[in-house]
Amino acid sequence: GAGVSQTPSNKVTEKGKYVELRCDPISGHTALYWYRQSLGQGPEFLIYFQGTGAADDSGLPNDRFFAVRPEGSVSTLKIQRTERGDSAVYLCASSLTGTVDLETQYFGPGTRLLVL
Amino acid sequence: QKEVEQDPGPLSVPEGAIVSLNCTYSNSAFQYFMWYRQYSRKGPELLMYTYSSGNKEDGRFTAQVDKSSKYISLFIRDSQPSDSATYLCAMLIQGAQKLVFGQGTRLTINP
User: Fold this and answer.
1) Taking the mean position of all CA atoms in its chain, how far away is CA A82?
2) Can you tell me the distance from the alpha carbon of B95 to that of A48, in angstroms, rounded to the nearest whole number?
3) Which residues of B touch A104 (CB under 8 A)?
4) Which residues in chain A land under pLDDT 70?
5) Does the pLDDT at position B78 exceed 90?
6) What distance in Å separates the CA atoms of residue A19 and residue A12, rounded to the nearest whole number?
7) Looking at residue B42, what is its pLDDT?
8) B102 at the A interface (CB within 8 A)?
9) A33-68 as b/e, with b when 16 or more CB fall inside 10 Å?
10) Chain B residues close to A36, C-beta within 8 Å
11) What mean pLDDT is reported for chain B?
């Protein structure tokens, strides 16, 4: 596709449930990033993939959060035992190589997660 | 204290006005500075980037960096209603890939 796509666009779940959020990066982009944007805040880094491997997962808040990118393209962010505080917009971005300084990260529209 | 501080606004100005948006930062390791624009219910899109102190101009937009003061600015000249959005500053440490964002300033340009 022309840009980064994310599904679903909206997700409502109940506290304690498991959710999966999907990201399709721009075709050919090696690097993929996940950020979380709470209401009225700027995005906060969660994790960054170089190909299939997580190059930096220092932003994952706790072990309920996990992300995979098994074939180096699509990525899934998984949240176990969801809490109300997990409610936010989850943004995915991709860039061509992830190894060059100042390489543009292209963002998707985000998945709006609401935990009731 | 957050690494990057940005006044959330909201900021409302008449069409044609000059807009000034600012961020301060505390981490001296930041080497690259970016401005993103985010429309409602959309992802951020890169507007401008710079890596040295001084000014960089692109059309109606000017980015300014003062590393000695740890202060960056974005100026918008001849502002248009279509400029109404949230503006996010973002910063990078050299060799790192994770962007560190400010809170974002919500800007409205009134016709």
Assistant:
1) 16
2) 13
3) 46
4) 1
5) yes
6) 9
7) 95
8) yes
9) bbbbbeeebbbbbbbbbbeeebbbeebbeeeebebe
10) none
11) 95
Question: pLDDT tens, B20-46?
Answer: 999 999 999 999 999 999 999 999 999
* Proportion of chain A above pLDDT 90, given as a percent: 92
Neighbours of B95 (CB within 10 A): 9
H helices of chain B, in order, are: none
Three-state secondary-structure class, residue A2: coil
Q: Torsion angle, CA of A90/A92/A93/A98, rounded to 10 degrees?
A: 110
Q: Which of B98, B100, B103, B105 to mutate to test the interface with A (most CBs of A within 10 A)?
A: B98
Question: Are A50 and A61 contacting, i.e. CB atoms less than 8 angstroms apart?
Answer: no
The interface residues of chain B toward chain A in range 40-69, judged by CB-CB distance below 8 A, are 41-46, 49, 51
Which chain A residues are within 8 Å of B43, Cβ to Cβ? 4, 91, 93, 107-110
